[in-house]
Backbone:
């Protein structure tokens, strides 16, 4: 039996650590849930291409030859897309780094195709980077800072997150048998919220532990390797990894041609029949060496990339040269590292696991939102002991406004910047900048509104605003059909994004209505204070309803 004073100490730790990290984690979890379907988002946000239809596999060599002849920069590295869609509308693509910029700077993607007469047609990728922008929000817990600095802050938040998880388990253990399945629905809404918070926290605990630990590894990945390099490997860790890595490149032989794409795919299928190949990447390394990577998926196993695994192949023979990142065929050391990626990204088990991670991400965001509001509500009971008519202290007003403004501002900002993806291409130059301006403009405005109007009023108003913003996603698609030139639609590809947005908007409309009702019944000293004083009779009645 855990002593009461120990439980109280860990309850305080859980509360304060959760409050400190909760607002950043709301953004990480909400944006992370959306990135579980980054592929459909990319397709939804990609304008239709004017390029001719992708050439058949048998004409890929002709396409590569004509592209490199017209665009020599493509010879250094290009990709052949096995699967084409709105986001990858052609068989071949390559990257161009604008003049004067380094290879770490933003690049341009170009696609090439052949018309009916066999003439080369090229076009720059016109899709918006909105899906990548949301992914960066997730990685950097919403901070518009340099990536390396933001990742360090994210690591600190993840550490606090893990501490909150451990302390929460210790707090909950004494009453686990009695309260685990308790969900007391009734007039005492604070108790019901607490029950929901506890139940969600316990049943999603393995997911949250995975997220906390894997995020720590991602945040401090470089520091961990640097420490290992100095302490364990005497500064030779890079050489050790290189020596242990199978050869994954070949010397270019001018007298031989690479295998034709159909033959290469056939040989790969014979070696790894369950590995569904999405693209083949060709790179020319210094020293006249070629490195060719096959990217694809195998839903039976986890993947090293967010949604893909890789295999290094010999372009002359089709033999697999390195299986370090090949799902299900990795050496033990690589498989351990890949497990961190797979568990964090949920890139195993196919669509069911992705939906599971999506809902767990949304549930996690709710935990952080509800946790902060529950703490503020708990202040009411303590304040009432010292004053019969307690007043909301400044710290609870600030935390309430921040909780409502940041959480609902994040939802509205992501929704509106997604909607903008339908009409920004072709109308503005810097798409990434505009997506950032829209999101952070809405986000900051929501926080300002929450401070201006107070937690109660702004909670209702911002939920309505977030609902309308989320509903704008399918509405933009409808308007794209009705108003020529406004945007575009991709029949059969966008329903997942649009139906999910409709469901999300409906839920926000419902919660706005319920919050409005809650404000009318809440005590004056509640987080849902309504501003103007009400009659003492109403206040006394509300106190009675909310009493423990």
Residues:
């Amino acid at each position: 039996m855990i002593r009461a004073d120990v439980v109280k100490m860990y309850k305080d730790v859980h509360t304060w650590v959760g409050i400190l990290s909760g607002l950043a984690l709301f953004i990480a979890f909400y944006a992370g849930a959306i990135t579980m379907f980054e592929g459909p988002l990319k397709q939804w946000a990609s304008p239709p291409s004017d390029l001719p239809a992708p050439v058949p596999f048998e004409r890929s060599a002709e396409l590569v030859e004509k592209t490199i002849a017209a665009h020599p920069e493509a010879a250094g590295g290009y990709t052949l897309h096995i699967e084409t869609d709105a986001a990858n509308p052609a068989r071949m693509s390559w990257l161009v780094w604008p003049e004067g910029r380094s290879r770490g700077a933003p690049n341009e993607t170009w696609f090439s195709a052949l018309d009916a007469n066999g003439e080369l047609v090229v076009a720059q990728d016109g899709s918006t980077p909105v899906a990548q922008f949301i992914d960066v929000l997730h990685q950097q817990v919403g901070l518009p800072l340099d990536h390396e600095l933001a990742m360090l802050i994210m690591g600190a938040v993840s550490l606090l997150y893990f501490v909150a998880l451990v302390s929460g388990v210790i707090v909950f253990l004494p009453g686990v048998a009695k309260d685990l399945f308790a969900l007391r629905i009734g007039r005492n809404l604070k108790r019901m919220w607490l029950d929901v918070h506890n139940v969600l926290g316990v049943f999603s605990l393995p997911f949250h532990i995975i997220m906390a630990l894997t995020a720590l590894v991602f945040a401090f990945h470089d520091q961990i390797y640097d420490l290992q390099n100095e302490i364990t490997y005497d500064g030779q860790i890079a050489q050790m990894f290189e020596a242990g890595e199978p050869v994954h490149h070949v010397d270019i032989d001018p007298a031989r041609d690479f295998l034709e794409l159909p033959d290469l795919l056939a040989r790969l299928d014979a070696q790894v029949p369950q590995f569904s190949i999405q693209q083949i990447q060709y790179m020319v390394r210094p020293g006249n060496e070629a490195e060719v990577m096959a990217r694809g998926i195998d839903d039976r196993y986890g993947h090293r990339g967010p949604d893909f695994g890789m295999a290094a192949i010999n372009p002359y023979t089709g033999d697999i040269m390195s299986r370090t990142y090949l799902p299900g065929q990795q050496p033990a050391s690589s498989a351990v590292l890949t497990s961190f990626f797979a568990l964090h990204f949920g890139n195993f088990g196919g669509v069911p696991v992705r939906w599971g991670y999506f809902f767990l991400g949304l549930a996690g965001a709710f935990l952080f939102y509800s946790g902060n509001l529950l703490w503020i509500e708990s202040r009411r009971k303590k304040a009432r002991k010292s004053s019969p008519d307690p007043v909301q202290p400044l710290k609870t007003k600030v935390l309430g406004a921040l909780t409502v403004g940041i959480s609902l501002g994040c939802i509205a900002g992501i929704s509106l910047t997604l909607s903008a993806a339908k009409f920004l291409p072709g109308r503005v130059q810097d798409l990434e900048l505009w997506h950032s301006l829209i999101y952070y403009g809405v986000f900051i405005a929501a926080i300002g509104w929450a401070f201006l109007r107070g937690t109660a009023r702004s909670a209702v108003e911002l939920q309505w605003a977030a609902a309308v913003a989320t509903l704008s996603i399918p509405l933009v698609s409808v308007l794209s059909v009705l108003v020529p030139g406004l945007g575009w639609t991709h029949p059969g590809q966008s329903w997942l994004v649009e139906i999910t947005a409709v469901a999300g908007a409906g839920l926000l409309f419902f919660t706005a209505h319920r919050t409005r009702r809650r404000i009318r019944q809440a005590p004056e000293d509640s987080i849902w204070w309504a501003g103007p004083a009400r009659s003492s009779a109403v206040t006394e009645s509300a106190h009675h309803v909310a009493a423990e």
About this structure: Residues 409 and 444 are 7 Å apart (CA to CA). The radius of gyration is 27 Å.
